Amino acid sequence: MEFQRLGSILSLAAVVSLLCWPSTVIAGDIVHDDDVAPKKPGCENDFVLVKVQTWVGGVESSEFVGVGARFGVPIVSKEKNANQTRLALSDPRDCCSMPKNKLTNEVIMVHRGKCKFTVKANYAEAAGASAVLIINNEKELYKMVCDPDETELDIQIPAVMLPQEAGASLEKMLMNSSSVSVQLYSPRRPLVDIAEVFLWLMAVGTILCASYWSAWTAREAAIEQDKLLKDAADEISDDGVVRPSGVVEISTISAVLFVVVASCFLIILYKLMSSWFLDLLVVLFCIGGVEGLQTCLVALLSRWLRGTAESYIKVPLFGAVSYLTLAVAPFCIVSAVVWAVYRNHSFAWIGQDVLGIALIITVLQIVRIPNLKVGTVLLGCAFFYDIFWVFVSKKMFHESVMIVVARGDKSGEDGIPMLLKIPRLFDPWGGYSIIGFGDILLPGLLIAFSLRYDWLANKNLRAGYFLWAMFAYGLGLLITYVALNLMDGHGQPALLYIVPFTLGTLLLLGKKRGDLKTLWTKGEPQRPCPHVRLHSSSSSKFEDEK
């Protein structure tokens, strides 16, 4: 049908343009490294995010987030142990000399610049301050470290860096009120948040559903091929192959080109990321989401509403469309529009995940790898792609291009919509646990291939490849989240862990069972042709009659 072909094109366009975002946690990550300033005595604190809660005239007001310095005393982790202390503005503002104002355990606010961080902290402590807030001259946070030749590091007050906007707000509070107090504390993140468990289940469940749908379609196509060969033995050759309609198989060349195209698109996103460009991505995501949700609902409901699913009407531009598709389409469109309108609200992640999962399942149904060779090339290229744009790109662009694009740092909004995400429910810093579409789609192509092979070869779960590939993917994704927590929430390239587990399992298992050559080249087991069997049985019967 024209409508189905159009849907396939839209889904494929979504694949090319929206794939391969990293698995990461968004919770105000610090963006600057300090490899040239290692720890040393007096300057050995771990970098931690710090909450700065304010009170104006005794009434609780805004809360800001800063980062603790390498030097100074550690900041308390529990809110109940943090003192509510009066805030004062340094005079001079940079605190590069002894402050003129008399302090009695106040928290002093100073501006960055003109002297070292440790100099400011030493002067603030000497003036009687209980802590020092250093306001950055940029919007982002900056790690305060010590120079290698510094010696005056016996600083007994905590030092915290705040972004420029937070400093401006605090100064405004001080100008409008005579009484401004602050409370500094750094709550610890839980080792594991329930959001990561649900995200893991979502990723594994999505691949599971898509794989069974893909395998069922492949088996139906094989049955249809056998029927055609039986009914037209003289017209169809022995090597005739019938593929499911609307299915696109990836070639080795297209697998390599995919990574090139994805890299170019990532650079475009990085350079042009802005609010208007993000709106364009939202539109593309909605188009793909509508098509994905519609395809999934039609396939599901057609099992009970076979009559409406098999009755068609001609629609201009779309051709023949089933009545079931027409009935489902308005719901899908409205769902996408509602999500787009309310995408910045706290509950919008639900709609984004529903549309995203439907799109992923649909793409895994449409796009397939024909054999293990193509799967190895695709996942191998994606493996290096992920590593390069998460880690190596820092050397070229002074920041991780993949992480910046995924978080939407340059757009002023919450990031691109091509992610599955769940809010971190028990994290005091909030934020989301997220996983990119590519971390599900690319391994999903290989796992769906393994189940199609198992079904065509009549292998049970234990003797087949799907169960072990699925287990390997789940384990690789689990290790990704372990690494994520060990790295304090900094983005991790999930394919770095998933590809070796998933691809390595199939390669080693295929080698051990003697199926590697078939998996690598043909991608499906050798099946006897029905018309050959029919011809042989007829010949035998004729010989017996003689």
UniProtKB/TrEMBL annotation:
Query: Where is this protein found?
Result: Endosome membrane
Q: Which UniProt keywords apply?
A: Endosome, Glycoprotein, Hydrolase, Membrane, Protease, Signal, Transmembrane, Transmembrane helix
- Which InterPro entries does the UniProt record give? PA_dom_sf, PA_domain, Peptidase_A22B_SPP, Preselin/SPP
Annotated membrane topology: Multi-pass membrane protein
| Annotated Pfam families | PA (PF02225), Peptidase_A22B (PF04258)
| Chain ranges of the PA domain | 94-170
Q: Which domain of life is it from?
A: Eukaryota
Write one Gene Ontology MF term. Answer: aspartic endopeptidase activity, intramembrane cleaving
Signal sequence region = 1-27
**GO terms, biological process:** membrane protein proteolysis
Cellular component GO terms, alphabetically?
A: cytoplasmic side of endoplasmic reticulum membrane; endosome membrane; Golgi-associated vesicle membrane; lumenal side of endoplasmic reticulum membrane; lysosomal membrane
The role this protein plays is: Intramembrane-cleaving aspartic protease (I-CLiP) that cleaves type II membrane signal peptides in the hydrophobic plane of the membrane.
Q: What is this protein called?
A: PA domain-containing protein
Q: What is the lineage of its organism?
A: Eukaryota, Viridiplantae, Streptophyta, Embryophyta, Tracheophyta
